[in-house]
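Dear colleagues,

As part of the handover before I leave the project, I'm documenting each prediction I ran so the next person doesn't have to rerun anything. This entry is a single chain, and its sequence is reproduced below.
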Amino acid sequence: MFSGALNLPWWGDLLALLVLVQITIAAVTVYLHRCQAHRALDLHPVVSHFFRFWLWLTTGMITKEWAAIHRKHHAKCETEDDPHSPRILGINRVLFTGVVLYVQESHKPQTMERYGHGTPEDWMERNVYTPLNKWGILLLAALDIWLFGLIPGALIYGIQVGWIPFWAAGVINGLGHYWGYRNFQTEDDSTNMSPWAFWIGGEELHNNHHAYPTSAKFSIRWYEFDIGWMYIRALQAMGLAKVRKTAPRVKLDPSKIEVDAATLQAVIAHRFDVMKHYAKSMKATSHLEIERMRAKGHDYAPLKGIRKWLHRDQATVPAEQRARIAAVLETSPALKASWTMRDDLRRIWERSTLSSEQLVQQLRDWCDRAEQSGVGPLADFSRRLRCYA
């Protein structure tokens, strides 16, 4: 019952399990996510087909379904149409029944038609991987029991089959939009759960991914580690992968004071980094306002109560909180200026019908207004904005 064809000691079975689930995770993050869903890299046909076979064997997932559901998540993020948004559905439902939400969405033909383009449609996909997608995991059960023995094989099989539904469909889609830190002020709730992303193939750096979804590399900061990127670099070194795109690096030129087309282009490219620093400036402004109110003996409790909402888009703030924010802003001209000018700044890169010259002029006008506002943190932010290169 404990001896299979490999006849490994207990620690050998454990090591084999870790290797096997890492291969599955690599197949999901490198092939399904970065290659198929976002086209961030190209894989050699041999590598792509190995990953397709491995996913058929260990998960039963179909490439077209996975790519379509994930693309829809990005397109409809944090809305009623998002297949798995904790903001809409609640964290417990996404965390513990994420695989159910995945299956429900996979049965919607309109999702497959709208978002499933460009995925494999060869003979193997049409005749094996899609119609016989449940046969692979049955074959896996027999292989695990044969290789590791009845009891160890059954345990290894259970963990292999349950790993992706829990960690990917549950933890990434759930906690990845609920808990962690944020490098970028994206328009969704995405978070980085850990700067050292090796347990789930680098997917832990979820906020970085939502900021730059077409980047093959998820790590951004110097202290972050993306094991999925390590796999890609290894494949690249062997000529088996070609990276198409990575996240652009923020470049600041302190000598640059004139807003021009290059400034506009850099600000748009790094808009999530821009909004992150804007959130910091608003936090500094609220701190100064609290100190001002305290010095004058005024009640600053209402301001403290709304601070966590100040960095959020107005559309995502609950109605009752918006009323509280409006009341507090009427007592603080500095915060009101920062609150309203944030939307003015965002509208610059949302106005796609304007010419580049018009947008540059609007950005210049915005910086001039910010620096003449009398709000120290806002003026400092504007001077930094001019340095984007």
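The chain is about 60% helix and 5% strand. Residues 31 and 48 are 7 Å apart (CA to CA).

All the best with the project,
I.
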